[in-house]
Amino acid sequence: MDLSGAWRAAPAREELRRTFHEPALDDRDWAEVTVPGHWAHTPDLADERAVLHRHRFSMPSVAEDRRRWITLHGLAQQGDVWLNGAYVGDTDGYFVPHQFEITHLMRDTDEHCLAVDVTVPSFGDPDERSNLMGAILDPQLSGAAGHNPGGIWREVAIHETGTSAIQHFRVVCVDADQARARLAMRCVFDHPDGGPALLRTHVAGIDHELHHPAAVGENRVEWTIDVPEPELWWPHSLGEQPLHELSCELIVDGRVHDHRSCRTAFRTVRLRDWTLHVNGVRLFTKGIVMLPTTPRPGDATPRQVAADVRAARDAGLDLIRLVAHIAHPEAYRTADELGMLVWQEMPLRGVMARGVRGQAVRQAREMVDLLGHHPSVAVWCVHDEPFRRQQAPTSTPPIVGQQRPSWNRAVLDTSVRRVLQRTDGSRPIVNHTAVPPHLPLLDGTTSHLWFGWHDGKADDLAAAIGRLPRMGRFVTAFGAASVDPQLPELQAGRWPALDWNPIAAAVGARHRSLHHLAPPERTSDGPAWAETTRQAQADVLRTTIETLRKVKYRPTGGFCAFYLADPGPAGGFGILDSDRRAKPALRALTDACRPVIVVGEPLPASVGVGEVHEIAIHVVSDLHESLRDGVVSATIHHADGTTDVHRWGGDVEADSVARIALLSVPALQPGALTVELALSAVVDDAENGKITARSSVKTTV
Q1: For the chain, which terminal residue's Cβ has fewer other Cβ atoms within 10 angstroms, N or C?
Q2: Separation of alpha carbons 448 and 390, rounded Å
Q3: Cα(114)–Cα(35) distance, rounded to whole angstroms?
Q4: Global pTM?
């Protein structure tokens, strides 16, 4: 039975908390809220951090040989649940489904009153975070500093079982190749009378039965199922995405007492030298960070969530990084269907307080139970940026301050990692992001690189990776923010003497970084400046992606641009705005992420007459077959209209980077100087058997 719909709600005052759960309480003057939903949409409750919910419903009393359960699938963040005046239990964790037995509370009446006391924290100290809300509350990521995501944001439902009932269920594909796939299964069930129980599983035409001599009470059973000659699931750039329904029944004395089902697939994922291998095939991973589709997770419709995943695939990307949050279920269903890989993070970000360790460990187990069956989920990541925020951010993460051990990195992240290893040994696990090499292992993890945003130029990235290759092994954030030209604050003063701090905060940035990206004094007014930020954002993304692709596997295994869509109308780091309209950054990213690109090194912004500059020309191919009979041309357009044309020919190996030539570019006359590059080649999988690519390099003489 689905309990969605209109509920009653009131602010959680202490006196009312003592009686709100009593069925006889008159709640007719309480506000009406919608479940699933968020109480911020109810004006009288919008500023509350704790709200009491009540819902009356009719349901026949439960039969003697049946048990009844209530499941709250998503509640932000902590709740205490009462039914018919009796306390049922508590919830903690906004994404964790909580199931409680209510059989004894529904035997004597058909009319029922469900009451839930829901509390959501405010963001608090960014360097001592005490909640596990991650991106849902973080003002840098949510797009709404101080916003209120409180509410019962997913459905509440009641279901019945026999006297034996499943409490937890997990499916993980631990191995797969063309000969055999292996699923690891785990079922925790309650068996009040003890005695033999049968777990019968069906998947991909295979029927499997496990006879278990169950004890009285809770039983934990683990087993494996082998599927011969499976159809393998692939990322969309490598193959098809066959999916299979899996069902598991708990049978006692020939009768089905309970069951679980999910959709899964067969594949393996490994991370070697920071390069993902899917089913043994190496993949240079082009990805993007995804925030919650809407700042309040319950506001997003399945169609909106699916559209975001599809937009990432249509931009030529292979992976979505769900930064510091567990997403709406539709994100994973769509990723499975479209062949998108998912980098899944726990809702841990910044410096966490010591008191969160127990909840973090528990929620890690729940995350694997919830998501482990999805073939798209490729990587578990424990913690995003586990350090204090820099007062003056730079292009690279802080190094000196991270050489000493910290409780977050050494204790919290290690504890969560161990739980993930025990519950799912099939996927790579990354302890944290943006941590540079540090004692005692001097290894480090991924990098967050902001060349061209906080300081320097995007062109500086290539030299930085040359000096410290580990910096470029896997880059999980880069880019720049842009501002919407219609932002009212841009007109709220004498240009350019505006109050820049609220403008920057509205896009999750610092005003110094915005001014470095696009100096205001170079434009005539606010809207013109905002348009400049949009083009500058596109240039940073294009240059960074092309640089990382030119060093793929040496050392770069992949990247994730920061991020897909702005969370609010003011702007942000998104390649789409909050209404999902394309910015110039979308075209830049899409062009830079095509399977085959031809690219030249950037020229200086301006050069002198008579100077000669050399640029290296590369062809980068992510295709898993060779480019044959390739021709690369470079056409130099001088300011007086004359041109010089150069051509080279040859083959390009599959999944490789080829340095084509070192081209000398003379600056002959004042004015615009452009080098146009073009590639044509033969490839069997391409439409019409040919593939083409174009790009240009520009400067001013």
Answers
A1: N
A2: 13
A3: 13
A4: 0.94
**Structure-token pair, residue 389:** 């925020």
CA-to-CA distance for 211 and 201, rounded, in angstroms? Answer: 12
Kind of pairing between the strands at 341-345 and 319-322: parallel
Going from the N-terminus, what domains does the chain have, and what CATH number goes with each?
A: 5-160 (2.60.120.260), 165-264 (2.60.40.10), 269-593 (3.20.20.80), 599-700 (2.60.40.10)
Length of the chain in terms of residues written: 701
CA distance 170 to 679: 49
What is the C-alpha to C-alpha distance for residues 227 and 481, in angstroms, rounded to an integer? Answer: 48
| Per-residue pLDDT tens over the stretch 568-585 | 899 999 999 999 999 999
Beta strands 612-621 and 596-600, pairing class: antiparallel
Burial 37-69 (b: 16+ CB within 10 A, else e): bbbbebeebeebebbbbbbeeeeeebeeeebbb
Q: What does the alpha-carbon distance between residue 691 and residue 673 come to, in Å, rounded to a whole number?
A: 27
Mean pLDDT of 171-178: 96
- Using the structure block, give the residue that is written with the tokens 């697939």: 265
Residue 366 to residue 98: CA distance in whole angstroms: 10
Does the bond joining 436 to the residue before it have cis omega, within 30 degrees of 0?
no
| Burial letters 430-455, b for 16+ CB under 10 A, else e | bbbbbbbebeeeeebbbbbbbbbbbb
Q: State the Cα–Cα distance between residues 139 and 295, nearest whole angstrom.
A: 10
129 secondary structure, DSSP code: B
Using one digit for the tens of pLDDT, what is the confidence trace for 260-270? 999 999 999 99
Tell me, letter by letter, the H, E, C secondary structure of 448-508: ECCECCCECCCCHHHHHHHHCHHHHCEEEECCCCEECCCCHHHHCCCCCCCCHHHHHHHCC
CA dihedral 673→675→697→275, nearest 10 degrees, is -170
Residue 123 neighbours by CB distance under 10 Å: 16
pLDDT of amino acid 147 = 79
**What does each C-alpha distance from 485 to 17, 208, 452, 530, 536 come to in angstroms?**
47, 60, 21, 5, 14
Across-strand partners of 6? Answer: 34
